[in-house]
Design brief:
- This protein is 32% helix and 23% strand.
- It contains 4 helices and 5 strands.
- The chain has a single domain, classed as Gcn5-related N-acetyltransferase (GNAT) (Aminopeptidase, 3-Layer(aba) Sandwich), CATH 3.40.630.30.
- The protein has 149 residues and is of the alpha+beta class.
- α1 packs across α2.
- The protein has a 5-stranded mixed beta sheet, with helices on both faces.
Length: 149
């Protein structure tokens, strides 16, 4: 298995993965718009970095992250927005490999920490993150304000 940063040539597979992620969370399994993916990830102002885990030409999983500032004081943190492994590749070390690369990216960027959220009703994810040595934090509430800008 190889984990590497996605490039513009990966736009279509990323679009399909986004559809699979939506389906996993109960939405429709329809690919995202490749033009939107290309613009957001590889345009003038990229909003995230994507890592892909591959077995040859087969993409097994994805991790998407952004850098946040300030984290603590003037430190920077890496925020993991998405970690997803295709069903056929689960329990094969793909998520662990992706997380190791996320940690390496955080270190290379001089980040003080890696942060993420997980659904409370996903015990498999909670067990995986705990096995990595992460502890859930309960001191903050997660908020969302949706608006058409």
């Amino acid at each position: 298995m190889l984990v590497e940063q996605a490039t513009e040539k990966d736009t279509d597979v990323i679009a399909r993965l986004i559809g699979e992620i939506e389906a996993y969370y109960g939405g429709p399994d329809s690919p995202a718009d490749p033009a939107e993916i290309r613009n957001r990830l590889f345009g003038k102002q990229p909003v995230a970095t994507v890592l892909l885990a591959r077995d040859g030409d087969d993409v097994l999983g994805i991790a998407s992250y952004s850098l946040l500032w300030p984290a603590v004081g003037a430190d920077t943190s890496l925020y993991l927005k998405e970690l997803f492994v295709r069903e056929r590749a689960r329990r094969r070390g793909v998520a662990t490999a992706l997380m190791e690369h996320v940690r390496e990216a955080a270190s290379a960027a001089g980040c003080a920490r890696v942060e993420w959220t997980a659904d409370r009703d996903n015990p498999a994810a909670a067990a995986f993150y705990t096995a990595l040595g992460a502890e859930p934090l309960y001191g903050k509430a997660f908020y969302r304000l949706e608006q058409g800008l």
